[in-house]
Each structure stands twice: as C-alpha cells, then as structure tokens.
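G., the chain you wanted modeled:
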Amino acid sequence: MKKPAWLVWTAVCFTLLSGCSLGDGSYISVTAHQSPLVSEQGEVPTASTYSELIAALSEIVSSGAETAAINVSGYPETTLERGAQAAVDHVLEYDPVAAYAVETMTCELGTNVGQPALAVSITYFHSKTEIQRIRRVKDAEAAQRVIGQALENFDASVVLLIENFEQRDYTQMALDYALDHPDTVMETPQITETLYGQDSSRVVELLFSYQNSRDALRRMLTQVTPVFDSADLYVSGDDAQRQKFSQLYAFLMERFDYKIETSLTPAYSLLRHGVGDSRAFASVYAAMCRSAGLDCQVVTGTRNGEPWTWNLVVDEGTHYHVDLLRSLEQGDFREYRSWEMEEYVWDYSAYPDWGGAVNPNPQTPEPTA
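Predicted structure as tokens:
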C-alpha cells in the first residue's frame, strides 16, 4: 500500500513546547520521548540541510511521536518547500521503521519566534509500543539468534531492524532453527515474512501462527526436557563414538512401539506418545547426539522418491549416514557410507564431507554394523 505524503504550507504561528493554535482550531505540542532506536529527545531537532531534514523526520518516527516540530531557520528558503516534500517521500520509502510503522506523514510550515519551523503530523499502522519493541541487530547472524529466542519463547511475532541487511530467506532461517532445536521448539509455526525499507538497513517482520496455545507448548516443553536430560545420562563417557551413537539409538527406539505419523509437535509426540515420522526421529536424535558431544546433522531429501529425513554423523573422523527408521526395519543400529544409499537423494553440495558416492574398493565393502 502506498502511503500518502503531502506538504501543507500555511503562514501560521505556533509555540513549539507549550502548544498553540495552527489557525484551524487544531494544536501541536512537542514532548520528550524515549525509544530503543533513538536517544532521548529533549530538544526540538534542527535541520539546515536536506540530509538533516531526513534525519530529523526519521528520529521523530522512531520515537513514535504523532506530532512534532523541526526548526528549519537555517534551511535555504528557496528550496525548503521542495526539500521538505522530498524528505517526507524519502523517509516513507527508504527508512525501514517508517516503512513498517507509518501510514501518513504531513508537514505544515509555520514560524517559531519569527523563525521558520515545520510542524509534523504522523499517523501509524503500528503503535509507539510496537515501534519500541523492534529489536535492533547488526547482521543476519545476530538476527538468527533473536529469531531462535522468539521461537523458544513461543512468541507470536518478532520484528528486527537489521543494520547491515543482506538478502536472506528469514522464513527458512526460522524453519531451520526449529528443525535443529526440537528440545526447545515444540511446534514449528506457520510463518509470514515481510520486509520494510529500501536502504542498507531493513526491518524484517516475522509473524508466527501456532496450532497450540502458548501455555500448552510450555507444558509440552516441561515434559520433554527430562527425556532429553535422561538421554545424556544414557551415554557412557568412556565408550567409543560408534557405541555412543548406538546407545542413543537404543535409548530412543526402545521407548515405544512407534506409530509412524507426522505431528505438529514432533519432539513431544515422539517422546511422550510414540508418534513421529522420519523428520521427528532425525531431529530428536541429532539434538540428543549434539548434547552428548557427538557430531550429528539432519539431512533432508527423498527415499524411494518420497520426502525423507535422516542423519549424517561423524564417527571417529569418518562420515556415515544413519537412518533410524531403516535401522529399525533391519533390527539394529547401522551406519551407511554414501554408496550404500542408493535409494536416497539429497543435496550433495550441502554436505562437502558426505563420504564419497563411489565405493573405493567394491570387492571389500565396508561393514555397516
């Protein structure tokens, strides 16, 4: 939606801090505001150049003020009208907070003690409180940490001001975090992503929609946390890595006679009710392995043409594939080299050390158990 922006020029007099009539029965007042995005504003901003005018308008927006004033006594009179209009247009299009929060912005020219000043009036899509809740982060790596915190807190949304913005799929970033942290993220929400602004910094808004209530998800977390803690105790610190991988497989697989179904709450359904699919098994197993100090990743791809998820582990320096459901079918824990994964397809480029696609010695294949 294109936000309307216009400049109204009147020859009226107003007092900046006490408030007085603008000539049509309306009033303007300016008070001090606090915001996490700007310093406390105890003085009326002054703008004598176009860039200073843009900065002043951005400062007003970030404070969430609906009315404010800008002293423009030093601004060249011949270019003030054109400069003010251009500055309003620029802020609405390029400033990320304004693009996120502002519906309309208008300016009126008046005088303050005989000197030119602009009275600014703003209406907002998002309230001052919502503006103050914007999280400022440096880059995408810092954004990932804040997104993870929001998911673990089961928040309904997270709004980030990324200073050094780079084009990333922030929705996928959230989905990947949920997959990698089944011990703390109980449900992967539906995500709506919106970007605001056109400058080197951008606002990223992620809205999270859950099927379960926040209280329900918190109860689930309290029930699965002891199971993950018990998995740590199940692994012996003196055993070889392969033995540890096998012990965690046994810990997980011996809990239930599992029913293979997809669930919205993978860790909870798997560990408390014995219901899960390949994705739930792989993500929970990887989290248990990492907690035990073992190198284990989640791999997504297909098996026999169907969507499938399994693990890639590092066992004594060698990469192996582990498919818990395949091992369950065959009756014991097994590790597979890549040439033994004929029915599987995955993004090979995403795993540069995935073990080689060709058996270097086909006459003496490596044992799988």
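The radius of gyration is 29 Å.

Shout if anything looks off.
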